[in-house]
Amino acid sequence: MVSQPKIDYINRLIDESLSEGDDTIELKGKFIGDEGVEALVQSSDLANIEDLDLSNNNITWRGAVQLFRCDKFKNLKRLYLNDNNIANKGALALVEASFLGGLSVLDIHFNAIEGLGGMAIAKCSNFQKLQVLNFQENQVGDDTLIAIAKNPSFGNIRKLNFYRTGITIKAIKILARSKVLKKVKHLNIGRNYLHPDSAKALADTKTLVNVETLLMIENYLGDDGVKNIMESESFVKLKMFRVL
Fold first, then answer.
1. Helix (H) or strand (E) run with residue 88 in it
2. Given CB 3.0 to 4.6 Å as the disulfide criterion, which of 86, 88, 136, 216 pairs with 163?
């Protein structure tokens, strides 16, 4: 059971945040932990919240379960949970959250999520409005990206971040053929296990033709891989391409 001092502290933080905007709770870096999340979901001021930032707060799967079971977030659009430790159990709880259908931004980078949790999210059918998905620094691997590339629920994604997620050519081949992700404009697949063949597969895409920013830093593309991307007839809208 959460302590009264913790409830009072969280309510004060909420009041301070809401004084600057009645639809945003910004608690980044307050280190509120799982108990703080439990206190948060008891608040009566959540129904109109559109932006919730709980990044860098020492939240584990226990706090994540409390958050995702809360049914008070009637208008939540943007959720920032990066730099916590919700892990696979938290990801499994996430897909049961009642507010998923309204989300446009989901940032869960650096949360110790692995394949099991990644696949639970990737197979979820409730992300129709999602435009930004950040999986950076979670070792979710090829299967998660492949499942997302095939799941119609992710058809409105504009910004997709799979930096350092353990993906290889296996996922890139499916990504390059994905009809689901045709609206993606910003793609970050840096620091993975990608070689010239991955660059060639992307360069030959017939569907990822709206990409404007492509980040492939710290991979192993070589000169041939870079050339394939730069000369691709598919990336006519490309404005930024980074490999360093």
1. helix 87-94
2. 136
Across the chain, which has 244 residues, the per-10-residue mean pLDDT values are 91 92 93 96 96 98 98 98 98 98 98 98 98 98 98 98 98 98 98 98 98 98 97 98 96
DSSP-assigned letters across all residues of 19-78: TT-TTEEE-TT---HHHHHHHHTT-S--TT--EEE--SS--BHHHHHHHHH----SS--E
* Distances, alpha carbon 94 to alpha carbons 21, 106, 243, in Å: 26, 11, 33
At a CB cut-off of 8 Å and minimum separation 6, what does 91 contact? Answer: 108, 111, 113, 116, 117, 118, 120, 121
What total number of domains does the chain contain?
A: 1
How far apart CA 108 and CA 105 sit, in angstroms, is 10
**pLDDT value for 21:** 74
Task: Give the closest residue to 201 by CA, choosing from 145, 152, 132.
Answer: 145
Q: For residue 19, give its domain range.
A: 4-242
CB 157 within 8 A of CB 181: yes
In this prediction, residue 39 carries a pLDDT of 97
Please report, as a single letter, which amino acid is at residue 214. Answer: L
Question: What single string gives the DSSP state of each residue in 178-233?
Answer: -STTTT--EEE--SSS--HHHHHHHHT-SS-TT--EEE-TTS--HHHHHHHHHT-S
The CA–CA distances, whole Å, from 214 to 61, 73, 210 equal: 32, 34, 11
CB–CB of 207/182 below 8 Å? yes
Task: Read off the CATH number of the domain in which 61 is found.
Answer: 3.80.10.10
